[in-house]
Specification:
Length: 74
């Protein structure tokens, strides 16, 4: 039962991690620029910083669930 919950969290974390990484702006041509995340917005650096924090938190959750599933099924 607990493994099922961890699998659901793992799948959600992996999907969110893909989305958050794609939202990062690269060298001026990121996916966030397509949806109005260009440099003309005020406070763009704080938004980018918040996106970095969310991406790191999601990656940590993904890492913990990966280790949990590997430990339980090994």
């Amino acid at each position: 039962m607990l493994n099922d919950v961890v699998i659901v969290f793992h799948l959600m974390a992996s999907l969110f991690l893909i989305v958050f990484i794609l939202l990062h702006s690269g060298k001026g041509s990121g996916l966030s620029d397509m949806f109005g995340g260009g440099g003309g917005l005020s406070g763009g650096t704080s938004v980018e910083r918040r996106l970095d924090q969310i991406t790191i938190a999601t990656a940590i959750i993904f890492g913990f669930t990966t280790f949990w599933l590997a430990w339980k099924w090994a």
